[in-house]
Design a protein that fits this description.
single chain; alpha+beta; SH3 type barrels; five-stranded antiparallel beta sheet; about 20% helix; about 40% strand
Length: about 70
């Protein structure tokens, strides 16, 4: 499921990032890699705030819908 509809406050594993190579490379530089663990802290109309390692990231709905977790 994309992180835009993922449950809040639950650890989730990234299983796929389906976006163009430029955005995918940028997400990897932020730490969103395959098998990384993230937690969705907030979701509003598809825009999400996630916790990743020791930080937080805000992602717009287009990018959030391209990151799949389980």
């Amino acid at each position: 499921m994309p992180i835009s509809i993922a449950p809040l406050n639950k650890e989730l594993r990234v299983i796929r990032v389906s976006s163009d190579p430029k955005i995918k490379k940028h997400l990897e530089s932020l730490g969103i890699l395959l098998n990384s663990i993230i937690t969705v802290l907030s979701s509003d109309n598809g825009n999400v705030i996630i916790a990743l390692k020791d930080g937080r990231l805000a992602l717009d709905r287009n990018i959030a819908s391209s990151i799949f977790v389980c």
